[in-house]
Design a protein that fits this description.
Elements: H1 2-29, H2 38-47, H3 77-82, H4 85-146, H5 148-153, H6 155-192, H7 197-200
Helix pairs in contact: 4-6
Length: 201
C-alpha cells in the first residue's frame, strides 16, 4: 500500500514539473513583434558607429563647480596657432626664472647633502678612533694584569696610565655623541629647508 502511495506521489511530482517547465519555456519564447532581445540590441549598437558615445565637451555653461577639471594632452591646433610670438617669448621668459629657481634649489640641496656626508664621515672617524683606543686599553690592561710581579712593581705608573686611558675614552665617547647629535640637528635643519628625504638619509 505504501509503495502505491509513493509511486502515485512520484507520478504527480513528475507531471507537475513537466507542466511548469513547459509554461516557463512558452513564457520566455513568446515575444511581442515590436520587442527585440537584449542581445539583438547589443549587436546593433556594436555594428552601428553612429550610436557610439560622443566625448563630453565642457563649456562655460556646463563646467563642474564642485569638482576639479584636468586637461591632459596637447592643446588643440587652433589654440596653438592663435598664440603670438610675444606670448611665446613671455612663456620662455617665465620658464627661465623657474629653471633658475630649480637650479638654485638643486645646488642648495647638494650643499646640504655634502654637509651631511661630511658629518657622517666625522662620526665614522671618531667611532673608529674610539674603538682603537678601547682595544689599546684592553690590551694594555691584559698585559699588566697577566703579570702580577709587573703589576706590583709598576702599580703607581699603571694607575696613572689607567686614569689617562679612561679619560681619553670618556672624551672620545662624548665627541662621538656630540657628532651624532650635531648630525641629527643638521638633518632637521635640512628638512626645514625643504631638502628631499632621499638626500638627507
Amino acid at each position: 500500500m505504501k509503495r502505491i502511495k509513493y509511486i502515485g506521489l512520484g507520478f504527480v511530482f513528475a507531471f507537475s514539473t513537466i507542466l511548469l517547465g513547459s509554461f516557463a519555456g512558452a513564457q520566455t519564447t513568446s515575444q511581442t513583434p515590436g520587442q527585440s532581445s537584449l542581445g539583438d540590441y547589443a549587436r546593433k549598437v556594436r555594428k552601428d558607429p553612429a550610436t557610439k558615445a560622443k566625448p563630453k565637451v565642457f563649456d562655460n555653461d556646463n563646467l563642474p563647480t564642485d569638482d576639479k577639471l584636468s586637461i591632459v594632452g596637447q592643446p588643440p591646433a587652433a589654440e596653438a596657432n592663435d598664440k603670438s610670438g610675444d606670448s611665446k617669448d613671455k612663456d620662455a621668459a617665465a620658464a627661465k626664472p623657474a629653471d633658475d629657481e630649480q637650479a638654485r634649489k638643486q645646488a642648495a640641496w647638494k650643499a646640504w647633502q655634502d654637509k651631511l656626508t661630511a658629518q657622517k664621515d666625522a662620526i665614522d672617524l671618531a667611532s673608529r678612533e674610539l674603538n682603537v683606543l678601547q682595544r689599546e686599553y684592553e690590551l694594555r690592561a691584559a698585559a699588566i694584569y697577566a703579570d702580577v710581579g709587573n703589576r706590583l712593581r709598576n702599580s703607581a705608573q699603571w694607575d696613572k696610565e689607567d686614569a689617562d686611558y679612561k679619560q681619553k675614552i670618556a672624551d672620545k665617547q662624548k665627541a662621538v655623541y656630540d657628532a651624532k647629535q650635531k648630525l641629527e640637528d643638521m638633518k632637521e635643519d635640512a628638512r626645514k629647508a625643504g631638502v628631499p628625504s632621499a638626500m638627507i638619509d
